[in-house]
Structure formats: C-alpha cells, structure tokens
Design goal:
By secondary structure, chain A is of the alpha/beta class. Chain A has 11 helices and 8 strands. Chain B has 329 residues and is of the alpha/beta class. Chain B has 2 domains: 187 residues, 3-Layer(aba) Sandwich (Rossmann fold); 127 residues, Rossmann fold (3-Layer(aba) Sandwich), CATH 3.40.50. The chains are: A alpha/beta (356), B alpha/beta (329).
Chain lengths: 356, 329
C-alpha cells in the first residue's frame, strides 16, 4: 500500500474492544472496507488527474473519509445529504456508485450527471444525494429548504448539510441556522472541520472555535473526533434519531484533517502549514489507521483479511476507472439540454442566435 | 370581468394557485401578519394559514436559498422580495443555484419556483431603492423573467409563472400596484397567460415602441401624444423578457420599419441592447432608420425631484426618439 499501512501495530492497548460494543465483526469490516474504498477512489482520481483524464478543480477527501462514513452511514435511504464541492466520497457514501462518480470526473456520459457537472457537482437525487455545490456556503440555504419541505409535508426524514469550516464565516450560515431554529427544521449542519479554508487557518479568521459558532442562533452544538469513524457513527446514529423524533436542527463540529492540498492545484503544505504537521496528523489521525489498529488490537481483523479487503476495493476502483475511460463523451445535443425543464411554446429562451 | 388593481390581481393569482396546489407556498418579509409591504398578500394568511404564508427574518440570501432547497424536493415556493433591490443580496442563490441547478445536475433536479416582488424606479426613493433589476436576472440562462404591465397580465402571467417548471423572476412594477384594469375573476375560469407571448398594447403603423413593465404606460402616453401630431405609434409590450417573443419584435419592425426600444434600466448591456442586436441581425433590411434606445440615465438614481425626472425615461425623450427614427424635426 502506498499511502495506507497494513501492518499490525506494535503497541497494544489495554482494552482493545472498548467502544466497539454494538458493532458486529461484519459491520466493522464493512466500515473499514468503505473507508478504504473512499481512500483508493480518491487516490485513483489523483492519478487520473495527473495524467490529464480529469480536468478543472478536483478536491480530494483523503484524510476525511470517516466523516463521509460516520455521518452518512447512520442515515436512512430516504434521508437527504447535501455538501460542498469536496463531494466524491460523500456521494458514494449516500449511494451514488463509484463508477458514476468516476465517470463524472472524467466528464463522460456515464457520469452521475452525464458529464455536465464534474468534480464539484455530483448529484444523485434518486438516492437523496442533493449535490455538490461550488460556492462556499451555498448549500447551507438549500439544506434549510430541504428541511423546510420535509416539515411542510409532515415527513420524518432528516437532511444532513455538510460544510467546510470556512463556510461558517459566510452570512448564509447565520441566516440559515437562524431560520432552521425558528422553524425547528430537521437539518443537521455538519462542519467538516479540517482546520483550513484553502490556505487560511480557521483560527486566523475566527475569534472563537467552530463549535461555538452556532451559539447566537440557538442551534445546539456538539463536537466529535471525525477521524474516529466509530465515535462519529455513534454520535450521528443518536443525533439522527433525535432529529427524526422532532429535536429540531443540530450543529456538529466534526474534527478532521485534510491530508492533501485544498484542490489538486494546491500544495499539500508550504506557506500555510508545515510538512511536519501534515506528517504528524497522518501518523496519529489517519481514519483508516485508527480503525484498522483498533480491529487488530481487538483481534477482529487479520493481516490477510485486510489485504484481501484492500485488493477488493482496488479492483472496484479500477473497474470504476475502466468504466469511466470507456464511457463516451457527452453527445453534442446535450449542450442545450437541461438549461430549462419546460421549453415554453412562445418566445425564445436562448438568445445566442441559436433559434434565429 | 371586474376592474381591479394590479395589486388585487396578483393577490387573486396567488390565492387561486394556492387553492389549486398544496405545494405552493408564499414566503418573504412581512407577507403574512402585515399582509405584505405592498399588500399583495392581503388576507392570504387568514385563508391559508401560517404553514403556507410565512414571514421570514430579513435574510434575503437565506430565504432565497431556502426556497431553492424546497423546490429541489418538489415544493413550489413563491419567494417574495420586498423589492428586487434587496434581492441583490440573494443573487448567489438566484444565479448560482436556481438558474444552474437543472443543468449541473444533468436534468435530475428542476426548480418550479417563483421569485417575485416590485422592481423599477419609484418616486424619490434614491439610489438603492429605485432601480430596475431585470437585467441582473435576464442575463443568466436557466431562469425566466416576467415583467407584467397591466392588472390582467399580472394575474395571468403570475399563474403561469407559478405553474412553470423552471425558476421565474416575476418582476412587478413598483408604481403599478394601484393601476386598475379589467381582470377575469375566478368565476371567469382559469385565466392563464403563457410566458413568452408579447402583446401589442396599441396598434400603429408609423413607428414601434418596444418596451416592457412600467414603461408600457409611458409608451402609451407617448403614443397618445404622437397621435395628436399625426403619428401612429405601435406599442409592443414584451411581457416576458425570457422567453423573449422575438417573432413579435420582428413583426412590429416589419410593419412600421422604425423602432424605439424603451427600457427602465441602465443602457449598458441592457435589455434594449439585446433587442437592437436581434433587430439588426434578423430585420436589418426592414429598417428605414437606425433603432434608437431610451433608457434611464447611466447614473445611480438621484433623490432630488428635478434630478430624478432628468434621470428617468420621460415622455419627451421617447417622443424625441420617435421623431428621430421618423426623420422628423
């Protein structure tokens, strides 16, 4: 494995199975497998980007995989998830297939949105994945509206809104949380707190920590270690059922870390964070390493099982890349399709001379 | 058919569509308990309750986003901006979310929603409260823009806008709310005017004044004045700016061979610029004179009454423009 170690750790903890109660071996293996899948998927995307198969902006989730799994895993199929442009693995976690996500990155017909969206705009409305949105904080208002619609119809679904730490400085954040609190909407606002908004450390642009930023709105706040998928899953399992039962909006500071640059165009470290800091975080807080070590220590995972698991996800990711590669480019007739859903009988909708 | 105000015509349209479809709701500042800043939503709270007629905090970006989100999962929000001036705070949601959602989701998510409220210059409200906002919205593919001039158009077009499957910016004339006119009532059946259909508000043969929204009334005043002078002007009310009834524009130009394009907003990259471009592309040989535009002065709106008059399109400026394309004087 290039990035992710598979060796068993030398240090043993005293109570290795502590905190794993309630999870079967199969569930734990499934969690680990999914984290590995997300990691290998993003590594494949990185590789494809480097050789020009993927263009534009491409924001990887490497280091933050446990957020996708721990937050989205406890949801029901008819619940909603909406997020920012760092959306590949969250889309997969909600049920968009890896091949549809990869083909979207490649800009192909077989992509999640037929090649029109790209990395930042993956959608899977049929599985409740309401998109990757490209304007920082833009999805916060949309999530609030989805929550509004759930309440309007008297449904018991929950909408999870993922946002980056930097998005809490947008006005949309305050406006949305305030309305969600006034109307007790079933929305969980989840900050994927990776400590940096692009190259700006959060603490340089906020006088108070993330977890305190919902305080003026009345939306209850809590925090969790987002590198610990078990802790994150447990918290969200409980939180989702509370919100489903009518607890109103919630705000969670999920503490994580981005192991790569802000996007593929950006350096991993340099002026804004040191190489040593990144190495230290990778060593101590790799979400895959954290879970893997616990399972090793608890005797719930063997070296060969891990290797087989990794081989399985690599094969799945390779297949996704092959599918993307073989999927045709969008047809030219797609260019003007989906600008409007209803082409009115009268008048011109396109003013570029096309209909002239 | 009864003679009612533009305001009441809008109210009827909202009430009829809300009664027809439970997924339609009205949300905005002061729309419920206060009956609307311009009283367009008067009585709707009592009739439909606070589930469907909803007062918001002053958070234009927030509640515009909420509307888009609700439409993403199938509701049909009518989001009222107290005036479109304030909607500039919400342009991110209007342009980056509403106009682009269907395209960037590859057709998965459409937004059957309306942003509505008054636009255009009023009387001595100064720079920030007196401006036409239509160009901000009409610029973006993915959104439709409607600017009714009469009570009947206000009703018929709002009903069409609410039923349309795409986001519509429905821009009412701030000075038109008290204008009265004949409007088919609920007893006259389902009165819907399709989007994209311009309307000849006055037939004429000598010169065409192509316009929309509040400026339709100015154009009609101009036409009456010109008539005394022996000039027969045609007034074409575009009614919707996107879809744009290009056939009607070309038809009037082919009829009179002379056109003045009158718009309420600023000239640069304005709606008139687009219409002039279409005319020269598609009806150049029908023109007997270059098309002339009349717009607001290219300045923020001043407060002082005399300066405000100078800044707005006026009867005299439109008359002068008509004379120019007629080679009179």
């Amino acid at each position: 494995m290039a990035e992710t170690r598979t060796k068993a750790p030398s240090v043993k903890r005293s109570e290795p199975a502590k905190g794993l109660e309630g999870f079967s071996r199969e569930q734990l293996h499934s969690l680990l497998r999914d984290l590995l899948l997300y990691r290998r998927f993003e590594e494949k995307a990185e590789e494809a980007y480097a050789i020009g198969k993927i263009g534009g902006f491409c924001h990887l989730h490497i280091g933050q995989e446990a957020v996708a799994k721990g937050v989205i895993g406890p949801l029901r199929a008819d619940d909603y998830v909406i997020t920012s442009y760092r959306d590949h693995t969250t889309a997969i976690a909600k049920g968009v297939t890896p091949r549809a996500v990869m083909a979207e990155l490649y800009g192909r017909q077989g992509g999640a949105v037929g090649g029109k969206g790209g990395s930042m705009h993956i959608f899977g409305a049929d599985v409740g994945f309401m998109g990757g949105h490209g304007i920082v904080g833009g999805q916060i208002g949309l999530a609030t509206g989805i929550g509004w619609a759930i309440r309007y119809r008297g449904g018991d679904q929950v909408c999870v809104c993922l946002l980056g730490d930097a998005a809490v400085n947008q006005g949309a954040f305050l406006e949305s949380l305030n309305m969600a609190a006034v109307w007790r909407l079933p929305v969980i606002y989840v900050v994927e707190n990776n400590e940096y908004g692009m190259g700006t450390a959060f603490k340089r642009v906020s006088a108070v920590p993330i977890v305190e930023r919902s305080r003026g709105t009345g939306v209850p706040a809590r925090a969790v270690d987002g590198q610990d998928v078990i802790a994150t899953w447990k918290m969200f399992e409980e939180l989702v059922s509370e919100v489903r039962a009518g607890a109103g909006p919630q705000y969670v500071d999920v503490r994580t870390y981005r192991f790569k640059g802000h996007s593929m165009s950006d350096p991993v470290s340099g002026t804004y964070r040191s190489k040593e800091e990144v190495e230290r975080k990778k060593e101590s807080g790799d979400p895959i390493g954290v879970l893997r070590d616990r399972l090793f220590e608890a005797g719930l995972l063997s070296q060969s099982q891990l290797e087989a698991m990794d081989a399985g996800v690599r094969a799945e990711v390779d297949e996704a890349a092959r599918f993307a590669d073989e999927s045709p480019l969008p047809e030219a007739d797609q260019l003007y399709k989906h600008v409007y859903r209803e082409i009115n009988t009268h008048g011109r909708l396109f003013l570029d001379g096309r209909e002239g | 058919m009864a003679s009612i105000t533009y305001r009441d015509a809008l109210n009827q349209a909202l009430a009829e569509e809300m009664a027809r479809d439970d997924s339609v709701f009205l949300m905005g500042e002061e729309v419920a308990e206060y009956d609307g800043a311009y009283k367009v939503s008067k009585g709707l709270l009592d009739r439909f309750g606070d589930r469907r007629v909803v007062d918001t905090p002053i958070s234009e970006l927030g509640f515009a986003g909420l509307g888009v989100g609700a439409a993403m999962v199938g509701l049909k929000p009518v989001i009222e901006f107290m005036t479109f001036n304030f909607s500039l705070l919400a342009l991110d949601q209007a342009i980056n979310s509403a106009a682009k959602m269907l395209y960037m989701s590859g057709g998965q998510i459409h937004l059957p929603m309306v942003f509505r409220g008054p636009t255009g210059a009023a009387l001595q409200l100064g720079a920030q409260h007196s401006q036409s906002c239509a160009t901000w919205y009409v610029h973006a593919p993915g959104i439709k823009v409607v600017t009714p001039a009469t009570p009947a158009d206000a009703k018929g077009l709002l009903k069409a806008a609410i039923r349309d499957e795409d986001p519509v910016a429905f821009m009412e004339g701030e000075l038109l709310y008290n204008v009265k006119g004949e409007v088919p009532g609920p007893e006259d059946g389902d009165f819907v005017i399709p989007l994209g259909l311009a309307d000849v508000k006055r037939e004429g043969s000598d010169v065409s004044i192509v316009t929309n929204g509040a400026m339709v009334h100015l154009a009609l005043t101009v036409a009456a004045k010109l008539e005394k002078d022996g000039v027969n002007a045609e007034v074409l009310d575009l009614r919707s700016l996107r879809p744009l009834d290009v056939d009607a524009i070309l038809a009037t130009v082919r009829k009179t061979n002379r056109a003045v394009v009158l718009e309420e907003g600023w000239p640069y990259v304005g709606i008139g610029a687009q219409i002039v471009s279409i005319i020269q592309d598609e009806a150049f040989d029908d023109l007997d004179a270059p098309v002339v535009r009349v717009t607001q002065a290219d300045i923020p709106m001043p407060y002082a009454k005399n300066l405000e008059v100078m800044a707005k399109p006026s009867v005299q400026r439109v008359v002068d423009a008509c004379n120019r394309v007629l080679y009179r004087n």
